[in-house]
User: What shape does this take?
Amino acid sequence: MTDTLRAEHDAVLSSLETRVSTLHFAHAAVSFFLSISLFGSAGKLWWDHWTDEPHLALIAGSLGGAALLYSVTRAILGTKAYGREKVQITRLLDLRKAIGADAPLAISGPKT
Assistant: This one.
């Protein structure tokens, strides 16, 4: 019984070695700040050059919209991955209790 629990424990632990949700959330954060920068640039280009070259502002705004869409998509993927990882972490903690991996070591008296 403990061998099967230990094997499942090792399998769950190895699947949690790479946290996919962290990668998704990092991509979401970086692309969100990129979209804010692009939207700000588009606004400045529109304000300064709306009569002679409005297409520059439209290009920057379109790129900002694409970056924002990518950010939202990665945030949704990260939330879903975090939900799966949370279930795996709960199962890992239950397995550690069942195996007794977190039991305190027996402390003997001082050696003389």
In short: The radius of gyration is 25 Å.
